[in-house]
What we know:
Two copies of one chain form a homodimer.
Chain A: H1 3-9, H2 13-37, H3 41-55, H4 58-73, H5 75-101, H6 111-131, H7 137-152
Helix pairs in contact in A: 2-3, 2-5, 3-6, 3-7, 4-5, 4-6, 5-6, 6-7
The first copy, chain A, binds a DNA duplex through residues 1-5, 7-9, 12-13.
Amino acid sequence: MSPGALYVYFDSKEALIAGLCERDRAEFAERFATLATAPDFLKALAAIGEHYFVNEAAEKQRFVVEMGIEATRNPRISEIFMGVDKYCNDAFEALFHRLEDEGRIAPLVDIPTLVKVFNVFGDGMFWRRAIDPDADIGAVLPVVIELIGGLLNPKKAAPARRSRPRSKTKTATREARQ
Amino acid sequence: MSPGALYVYFDSKEALIAGLCERDRAEFAERFATLATAPDFLKALAAIGEHYFVNEAAEKQRFVVEMGIEATRNPRISEIFMGVDKYCNDAFEALFHRLEDEGRIAPLVDIPTLVKVFNVFGDGMFWRRAIDPDADIGAVLPVVIELIGGLLNPKKAAPARRSRPRSKTKTATREARQ
DNA sequence: GCAAACAGAATGCTCATTCGGTTTTATTTG
DNA sequence: CAAATAAAACCGAATGAGCATTCTGTTTGC
């Protein structure tokens, strides 16, 4: 596809970037949906990490870096870019709240902080893969998952019973959001 | 300083970048030296993290991102950029080996992997600070330090004795490097 | 008064965007 | 079914802005 032909579909470079972001957001939403319903959260998370940071071409990560830089210059691109970021973070925050409500995790830190730490892990693997041709995220991912597991402090589901275990912790149960 | 005036001091943009990298490397070496001799490794590490990811202007991190992107395009800049990266990693790897030899830490994972995980933490805080204007690394740094502490599995120095404790683990003691 | 340090205009290249024309695709008509 | 035609998709050259670098001349410090 020639440079000029792009402008048939997108009015500008910004619109193109917005489109790509939207596509990425949609793809993330899809993957996140499977994560949210997975019986074993950590295993599903590892699978997502494997996809984004090991299987997927490093060029994609590099492209996201380019968008990030562009976002620091262009306010409109910043809005788009940080919008996707916020979308992902909100999704994880909501999920963590739900898992806590269901008694499946008992995080060692408050959930907003947990999400921020989560960011650090994700961002770190992302950046490393983007710029280091020799990066081997596969080697660190199990450790990262282990660390996240430690923070989430997951509770084993009662193995004998079929029904989902109910929260019996002394901390107040959270209301459903909104 | 006008654009043209820069070329009095640097032959090219690459040379300028190389100079900035060298300055950063030297600054890191200085900070690392204090880290290497600090009695409390984790506390010293937290101080360095505080400096780089909280106190220092986010523009500096953004600039490093620019260099990283440039490195993916320009092989000569890549050499410079990844050279600094390797320098830092080698420094940490050597330090971890020494701390292990001295019996001050007993890492839960092998040291090369430990360094890679270390990278993830550093990269993550770095990238987040670079692109997110609302980033609050100060909120996550204590958790990150805690997690690193867990991985390093530090051993308390014997409080009564004045002499440094010697390694008594059954793992083979490492030779001094070169 | 002279050498180093600097500014700012000039040069040539890259890139975002536009535009005129051409191919492909779909639809209509004989 | 084939020819005709309209519309959409696309290419590649042209435009113009921005950036790396050079060059010429001016300022500054000694």
